[in-house]
User: What shape does this take?
Amino acid sequence: MGDVPCDGHKTIAHGVGSYKRHTMTSSLISSRNAPAKATEQNAKASPDFAAKLAETQALLQRAAAEFTPVTQASSLGAEDVVITHLINSLQLDIPVFVLETGALHTETLALLERTQAHSRAPINVFRPLQASVIQFVRDKGQDAIYKTMELRKECCGIRKMEPLARALKGQRAWITGLRQEQSTARAEVPLLDTSEEATKGLAKFNPLAKWTWGDVWHYIATNQVDYNPLHDQFFPSIGCAPCTRAISLGEEFRAGRWWWEDEAAKECGLHVKK
Assistant: This one.
C-alpha cells in the first residue's frame, strides 16, 4: 500500500442533510494510475488457513444447530461478506441483518442491493427512527459528531444502537466479523463469547477471530466474493461516510474510523460490553 494522504473531501447526501466525505488526493488514485485491487494487494493466506477455515465452518454450523434463533450482523465490510458467503455456501438457516444508518457510503448501499438480490440467506435491513435523526441534526447541528465524543456517541446511539436492539430482539445469539488483529481493543476477542448470556441471554460468535487480513482477502479472492469497492481505495474498515476515511501507509487498521478521536475510544458501542 502506498502513502495515501487524506486531505480532500467531497459532500455526499444521505438521509437528513449532507456530510463531507474524505477522499484521497494521492497520485496513486488517478484515472491514469488506479490502485491495485484489494484482492491483489491483500490476499495472502496464513500457513494454517485451511485449519482456520474448517474451524470457522464448524463454528457456524454449531451456531445454526445449537443457538437458534441466531443472526449475522453485517456492515458489508470484507469480514462480513466472507461470513455471509460461508452461511450461503453451507446452506445454513441463519438470516443476516444490516444497519442502514442513513449515512452509509453509496458504494455500501449498492453492495447491499446486490447482496439482497443474490443471497440465499435473508438480508434484513434495520433503519434508525427518522424522527430521532431529524431532531438530533436540528438540535445539535449537522457536524455535531466532530465537536465532542459525547455528541458522536449520541449519533451512534440513534443511528446504530437503537436499530441494533430491534435487530437482536428475540435472538439467542449473533455472529460478527470481529478479529483479534483489528485493534488492541479487540486483541482478546474469542471465537465464542458467552459472557453476556446470563445478563442479556445473548451469545456472540466471532468465527473470524483468529483470521488475518490476508486470510480474509485470500478467501474473497479464491471464492470471487463480491465486496465493497471502497476497499480498493484503502478503506480497510468501513462505517458511516462522515466517520470513515482512507488510511495511509503505516496507520492502524481502524485509523480511518473516527480519526479525530483518541485511539482507545474508537468504538461506536455495538461491541462494547455494559
